Amino acid sequence: MKDWLTLTDVADLLGIKPETLRSYRTHSAPGGRYERRPFPEPDDRVGNNLMWKTARRQELLDWATKRPGKGAGGGRPAHKPKPKVNPAA
Fold first, then answer.
1. Could you tell me the pTM of the whole model?
2. Nearest-CA neighbor of 28 among 10, 15, 42, 9?
3. Where along the chain do its domains lie?
4. Per-residue b/e over 62-72, b at no fewer than 16 CB within 10 Å?
5. What is the pLDDT of residue 68?
6. Residues near 9 by Cβ (< 8 Å), separated by ≥ 6?
7. Phi then psi for 45, rounded to 5 degrees?
8. Does the structure show a pLDDT above 70 at 75?
9. Main-chain phi, psi angles of 14, to 5 degrees
10. What pLDDT is recorded for position 76?
């Protein structure tokens, strides 16, 4: 097993695209939607590559399962079609 996970490795682990993971990190900054529960910071950086220790796999998975997602906080109600009115009635 590798000692380090790249951003692409973490995205694969979470079942998302690397671009989505970059977005999670962007939204983890102060004022972002995940600022209360930011994505775990990388342990190292090699050039432009962010790196997380493999030992943190569970922490990364836990973040993903607990992040606000579709429907978190109630969200917008689902559309309910209006009943059809019978003009002959």
1. 0.73
2. 42
3. 4-66
4. ebbeebeeeee
5. 66
6. 2
7. -140, 130
8. no
9. -85, -5
10. 62
> What token pair was written down for 81?
């079609």
How does DSSP classify residue 9? H
In whole angstroms, how far apart are CA 4 and each of 27, 39, 61, 62? 24, 17, 15, 18
> Edge-to-edge, what's the strand order for the sheet holding 4-6?
4-6, 49-53, 44-46
**Which residues lie below 8 Å from residue 11, measured CB to CB, with a gap of 6+?**
17, 18, 20, 21
DSSP string, 14-83: HTS-HHHHHHHHHTTSTTSTTTTSPPPPPSEEETTEEEEEGGGHHHHHHHHHHS--TTTTS-SPPP-PPP
Count of CB atoms situated within 10 Å of the CB of 60: 18
Residue 49 backbone dihedrals phi, psi, to 5 degrees: -90, 120
Structure tokens at 26: 């962007």
The torsion of the CA quartet 51, 15, 13, 32, rounded to 10 degrees, works out to: 40
